[in-house]
């Protein structure tokens, strides 16, 4: 987390935290192409950042921690700036990693998240959420918390549709041309190349994000004023209403009386755009803690159940000739084998915290579930050969229960 250095523009920047240090929600702002973690949200005429000024957002949401995530979104070397060679996927991975690191250090990995996304920053956030949703392996499930804890997303002029090769390239060129003379417009940025390569870039991200949308509160804002693009000799909407605010069930949409660049800059608390945004944020912040707390508990149970199932699969692979309780087996039945199998499987299917997943009882966050060595490797490393590969008097004697007993007794 960076807050003291005003020149810091990359990574997680803390713009405001509650006076008592206790926050109910993390609000995370993400800028777009040619944007900046501070300037994107700062009025040019005042200059005032409505995210951090005490008379703006902090006044209305005193119990929210307000962050801005910065990344290299430069798409030209104009004025000596270095360009980003990262693509959308790389930026999304970095956002997940850096936001998770910040929340880990704040001991707030289960705190609700509300995203504010301007322009193509919304595409990165959608990709980041889809990536986080897929992180469920035992060693990386802590990255799943961003998906679990995201409650709401406000999109400002994000191009969700209109992603054909011609249209998307045109949008990128218009965004770049707002600040960069055409004679020096250089499409050497990896981010720009990814967006220009064809319709699959946005379409793939949309396909990944759509199945997840029902979990979030979503508000679409579109620009109501055209932008003058002098070097292209035109005045036009950078992102059209149809692209920025698709009409979908259970989502909100509203226009903002500003052009593409100014739609997320508010010079006064009386601006209608500011009032619309803050009203939505206050509503989201009131309901987020209860919903996310319940969701975190549910996700813990899902992960724990997944670990149980993985443990059962390990047992099946190690004991291919013996069926579990409820399964048919070709082996002769004996009371000793039956009792041993019951003891073996009870540790898998018993009450939470027993058997092959020791160490998870009392866990307080999703990330801790993946940190336990027993979850990753339920069988002590030094005893594998003894149990499954080495000589065993029990197996030589034909006692199938001996192997099962090693699970319970280990």
From TrEMBL:
Domain spans labelled DUF676: 27-169
Compositional bias annotation for Polar residues: 361-370
Compartments where found: Endoplasmic reticulum; Membrane; Mitochondrion
Record carries keyword Endoplasmic reticulum: yes
Pfam families from the UniProt entry: DUF676 (PF05057)
Entry keywords, A to Z: Endoplasmic reticulum, Membrane, Mitochondrion
SUPFAM superfamilies for this protein: alpha/beta-Hydrolases
Protein name: DUF676 domain-containing protein
Source organism: Vermiconidia calcicola
